[in-house]
Amino acid sequence: MRATGPLALVEDLGRRGLAGVGVGRSGAADRGALRLANRLLGNPEGAAAVEVLLGGLEVEALADLDVVVTGAPAPVLLDGRPVGSHARTRVAAGSRLTLGVPGTGLRSYLAVRGGLDVPPVLGSASHDVLAGLGRAPLAAGDLLEVGEPAGPLPATHAAPPPGDDGRDVVLRAVLGPHEDRVVDVAPLATGWWEVSERSNRVGARLQGEGLVATDDEQLPSEGTWRGAVQVPPGGEPVLFLADHPVTGGYPVVAVVVDADVDRAAQLRPGQRVRLRWVTA
């Protein structure tokens, strides 16, 4: 590892079935991008890869490798030569691969054939930024081991999926169990909300006119989930992402449908978003 950019984490598909003992699932913020990268390499879909925030990653191969970059379409350079993303690239021993800043989106995924061989913590290699579980964020000088390939290389490549092009984003959602705890939940769908710079893998914090609570009564803590839109006392919603807390006591007024949560994980600070109500 030569450089990591703002944040580079090892992520797989997370820790399943441990919420009852206070451990969140975590895993890749954009699960579809991780699955795609692994399919292109013939890996199991949940194999560990590197999640890269806003580019800046530079790695040197110590052996011949097949790699793929998916997610936010970042410029990919091999020894200074553009090679593109969303297609397999052969990296010879001694060569360097660099990811630039993506034009749109937030998180790119660098996967390697065989997957990253990282010791699991509670069944997963993922780093959870809220709980501090898993391998620490990557740093220059780190060495990552690569596992053995699980099968033959597939014949297909993939074109970059259509992204949001940095434009305003509409996410599908259903009303949440506590939608009556705010005076009016409609502004989530009728107005635009700006993604705050304070957003992270825990959640996308949305700035706007604010939602007004119907009363100050404290809710008992209950389980939370990825895609839930929680409203803290300040009135500005938080859309929970991969590393959300296991429980919470603020009203959940909406839930983004699971198929759109990966898009939410690619929202950049300053980008505008609103919800569109759908039936469950």
From TrEMBL:
Q: InterPro entries attached here?
A: CT_A_B, PxpC
Per UniProt, the keywords (alphabetical) are: ATP-binding, Hydrolase, Nucleotide-binding
Q: Which residues form the Carboxyltransferase domain?
A: 20-280
Q: Name one Pfam family in it.
A: CT_A_B
Please identify the protein, giving its name as recorded: Carboxyltransferase domain-containing protein
Gene giving rise to this polypeptide = ybgK
